[in-house]
Amino acid sequence: MSLLARLAPHLPYVRRYARALTGDQATGDNYVRVALEALAAGERQLSPDMTPRVALYHIFHAIWSSTGAQLEGNATNLGHEDASSRLMRIAPRSRQAFLLTALEGFTPSEAGQILSSDVQSVEQLISEAQGEIDAELATDVLIIEDEAIISADIESLVRELGHRIAGTATTHHEAVDSAARHRPGLVLADIQLADGSSGIDAVKEILKRFDVPVIFITAFPERLLTGERPEPTFLITKPFQPETVKAAISQALFFHPANQKQAA
Hints:
Layout: H1 3-7, H2 11-22, H3 25-40, H4 52-66, H5 68-74, H6 83-88, H7 92-103, H8 108-115, H9 119-136, E1 140-144, H10 148-160, E2 164-169, H11 172-181, E3 186-189, H12 199-209, E4 214-218, E5 235-237, H13 242-255, H14 257-262
Parallel strand pairs: 1-2, 1-3, 3-4, 4-5
């Protein structure tokens, strides 16, 4: 299989990543082009110890890092008032680790290969990026959960990240009423609620009124992963790991279009 054929499926995604990393489409595309030219000329080679996708990102980073100082010096002049502007305020290495895992879906181990770093360091960088994001996008959170202990655990995680509790609800009616009275900036919802009502239906009704990021935390993920309708971007299965919830909150707030508009 030719080099182009091996890399073709991954090129749209490395371009997406490059644009997010640099905060500019033309700049990001140029770095990808230079990386591909280096490969074609034999100046760089895909590592046999990595998958083609990981190896491509690794080469892109080697190219980008060689001139990264100049890029960072121009970052504040990009003029973007969306997610790009917030990304550029995050320290470079933390930004890289966050985007590789949150946007591109790499595991911390794969991100470590790309960044020539160990897993522990990558996880620390991700945590630092999430902390910066949460501090900047602190918001009011509505928790829809009928199990008191779980609700309290989620509430503690939310407060730990610097967010406020807009309300807690155990039924469809309570959730919709709370959202109407205290418009939240984020909704964390279970699917099966106390009176047999549906958290899915509650979220649908809330979303008819205003646009807000939603994270489902449920023991019944199969009810949403049917393939028959649009599926949620953020779906966490119970029992959950606290760090998983924290990461999802950061990602949901950072990448939600409504939050990007509010930053403008």
